Amino acid sequence: MLAPRIRADLRALVPPGTDPVPEPGTIVLDEDLSLVAATAQAWRWIERLGAQGPNPGEPLPGVVYVVATQAANSPERPRRAARVRLRAADGSWMVIRVAPLATVSQVAAGYTVTLEAAAAEELAPLLMRAWGLAPREREVARLVIDGRSSEDIAAALFISVHTARDHVTVIFGKVGVSRRQDLTAALTGGAMRSASRDALP
User: Fold this and answer.
1) Is the pLDDT of residue 185 over 90?
2) Which of 18, 145, 151, 171 sits between 20 and 30 A of 192, alpha carbons compared?
3) CA distance 100 to 31
4) For residues 183 and 171, is the Cβ–Cβ distance under 8 A?
5) Which fold does the domain 122-188 belong to in CATH?
6) Cα Rg for the chain, rounded, in angstroms?
7) In 54-134, where does DSSP find H-type helix?
C-alpha cells in the first residue's frame, strides 16, 4: 500500500542545516513538450529530485513530462494547468506545476513549468491522509498547526478540553511524535526539533 510507505518516509524528515530551499524555478516547453529554456533554479530543483542534468535524449525528469502531458491532454479549452506534489531525493517536498502559455492569434505557444517548495497548507491535507487521521482528528490537527491550545481547540470544536486532549494524544500516537512542534513538522513537511517543549497534548 502507498500510505504505509509514505508514513515510513515521513519519519526521515529533512534535518536542520541542509541545503537551503532554492527559489522557484521555471522551464519553458514548446507545444510538443520539447525543452525551450530553463532557469538555473529549475536545474537546482531537478538536482533535488535526484535526476540527471540535461541530455539530448530526455533533458527533463520523467515526472515533468507526465504532468505536462496531463496539461496538454486537458479536454477543457483553454487547457487547464496540472500539478503534482512530490518528495525530492533530499526529503524536501516540492510542487511541479505546468500551465499552458497564452496563445496569440490561435497559435500554440507551449507550456511553462514551475518547480517550487510545497507550501505547508498544501502538504497538511495530504500528510494527514497519509498518517490515517480521521476527519475529526484532521480538524484538531489543523488547530494544533495553527498553534491553538487544548482549551482553544475545545472551544472551536464545541467539545470538552478532556476530549480535545484525547484527540491530540491519539494523533500523537498515529504520527509517532510526543510534542506539538514535532506534530506540526510532520504534518507540514518541516524538520523535527530536539527541544522538549510542548510535550503535553
Assistant:
1) no
2) 151
3) 9
4) yes
5) Arc Repressor Mutant, subunit A (1.10.10)
6) 20
7) 62-72, 120-130
Whether residue 189 is predicted with pLDDT greater than 80 in this model: the reply is no
Q: Among candidates 89, 96, 86, 91, which has minimal Cα distance to 17?
A: 91
Quick one: CA dihedral 116, 48, 18, 147, positive or negative?
positive
SS3 104: strand
Say if domain 2-118 classifies as CATH 3.30.450.20: yes
Q: Which helix (H) or strand (E) holds 13?
A: none
Q: Which three cell numbers stand for residue 34?
A: 520539447
Q: What is the pLDDT of residues 69-79, one digit of tens each?
A: 999 998 877 78
Element containing residue 145 per DSSP (H, E): helix 135-145
**Average pLDDT score, the chain:** 82
What are the structural domain ranges in the chain?
2-118, 122-188
Q: How far apart are CA 180 and CA 177, in angstroms?
A: 8
**At residue 9, does pLDDT exceed 60?**
no
